[in-house]
Amino acid sequence: MFLSLVLLISVLIHQRDAFSVSSDTEAMKYLSNFGYLDPALGDTSTSFVSGETVRRAISDFQSFAGLNPTGELDEETSIWMSKPRCGVPDIIHEGHSTRRKRNANKKVSRWKKKNLTYRILKYTTKLKNSDVDREIARAFQMWEEVTEFKFTPKMTEKKADINIRFESRIHGDDLPPFDGPGRILGHAIFPESGEAHFDEEEAWTINETNGTDLFQVAAHEFGHILGLDHSEVKPAVMKPIYDGYERDFKLHADDIQRIQRQRHLVLPDYGNWYLIKILTAIGFFY
Ligand SMILES: [Zn+2]
Ligand SMILES: [Zn+2]
Questions:
Q1: Which residue in the list 72, 200, 221, 246 is annotated as catalytic?
Q2: With bands split at pLDDT 50, 70 and 90, how would you rate the model's confidence at 109?
Q3: Cα distances (Å, whole numbers) of residue 78 to 30, 89, 109, 115, 240
Q4: 264 annotated among ligand-binding-site residues
């Protein structure tokens, strides 16, 4: 009896340790995947990285998430890290510089044209194709209403500006791979690449409280397609976390201001075109 008790306690202690190492490793992976830590540190445990580096990364994440920036991996922080989210990093590293910048708008390029075509190259098995077509069109329309962009679906085999695909796990790009149900829901590449991918393993739904709402995630990913990075404003469409189905989902003033500010610099009328060219040449925008 005594021996069994010792064995049981030993198993419980072992399991607790295993869990704590595992969540610690997960946290490191999360912080490196989403720009808070050097990506090379993503596969290590916190014990191999300086405590100060980890604390600063956790504190940066907490600030972004609107939590108290204690630098400690407390329960609330772990809960936030477990929420479903977009796979695009929150902080974009500036080339070889160690300086981290929250706002990637100066770094990312922008579309030079305003009439963009799109194609859905790979549909999901979770929804009818016609429903996907409709939700994707609605998501583009949301951005169309506040910009000069015009999005047109392309049915022919010809190359479109924006390719949309439902993919699983590793699927041939440099972003963190999809990870099965939950966690990463989708990701997209900044202009002028035009790639938006959705995780096929999510329970995609339309206007339902259960599952993952395709319209909401698509609207977010198309913000990246247009050059926006993540916003720290909680109700913004460009927040990185997916907070569940919202009946009245629409662009927030923060999203509208950011896209309009960006477009104002990029698509001037021809009178300003040379001025913009000169400013770009001397590095004013980058
Ligand atoms: Zn995102
Ligand atoms: Zn991808």
A1: 221
A2: confident
A3: 10, 17, 33, 42, 16
A4: no
